[in-house]
């Protein structure tokens, strides 16, 4: 951006030079630049609903449905025994529309039980590792130990 600022004379030319370098030239200084005692990277929090449940868990469910088939996944989820603290999906999950984060969270609670004896052990290990990561990532605070736990939960994925 500095080079574009020095070599151009009009705002349009500056913008064009920035875009040629894939840089947005509209932001000269970020809003937090002058705030004392501010670490913007420490103030951004993860979005559990959208990043974990509507993102990671949604992908994991689709992956398991691909490996098993939607019909087989629905059959297995319908046959899960009712249990305190777990939602029972009497019609399966493939027909659900506009699935909320709470429903995805409930699907995540029963997902491992649906695939454990049908999929290859490496696929079950991968699913377990991802679910462990999702649960650990929801801690209200993290320190070096919990970050190590998060890293360790994903190690089985690297070994496969």
Structure, described:
The protein is mainly α. It has 2 domains: 2-43, no CATH class; 48-159, no CATH class. The protein is 61% helix and 0% strand. It is built from 8 helices and no strands. α4 (48-68) packs across α5 (70-78), α4 runs parallel beside α6 and α7 (121-137) runs antiparallel to α8 (144-159). The longest helix is centred in the middle third of the chain and has 21 residues, at 48-68. The protein is elongated, with a radius of gyration of 23 Å. The mean pLDDT is 90.
Write a compact overview of the structure shown.
The protein is 61% helix and 0% strand.
Percent of residues in helices comes to 55-70%
SSE-based structural type: mainly alpha
Radius of gyration: 23 Å
The average pLDDT score comes to 90
Furnish the topology, listing elements before pairings:
Elements: H1 2-7, H2 11-20, H3 40-43, H4 48-68, H5 70-78, H6 101-115, H7 121-137, H8 144-159
Features:
160 residues; mainly alpha; 2 domains; 8 helices; 61% helix; 0% strand
């Amino acid at each position: 951006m500095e080079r574009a600022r020095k070599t151009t004379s009009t705002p349009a030319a500056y913008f064009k030079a920035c875009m040629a370098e894939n840089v947005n030239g509209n932001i000269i200084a970020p809003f937090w630049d002058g705030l004392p005692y501010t670490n913007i990277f420490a103030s951004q929090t993860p979005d559990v609903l959208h990043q974990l449940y509507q993102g990671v868990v949604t992908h994991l469910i689709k992956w398991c449905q691909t490996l098993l088939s939607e019909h087989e996944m629905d059959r297995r989820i319908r046959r899960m025994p009712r249990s305190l603290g777990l939602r029972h999906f009497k019609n399966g999950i493939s027909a659900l529309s506009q699935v909320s984060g709470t429903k995805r969270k409930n699907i995540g609670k029963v997902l491992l039980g649906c695939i454990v004896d049908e999929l290859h052990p490496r696929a079950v290990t991968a699913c377990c590792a991802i679910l462990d990561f999702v649960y650990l990532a929801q801690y209200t605070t993290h320190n070096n130990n919990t970050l190590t736990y998060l890293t360790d939960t994903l190690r089985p994925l690297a070994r496969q």
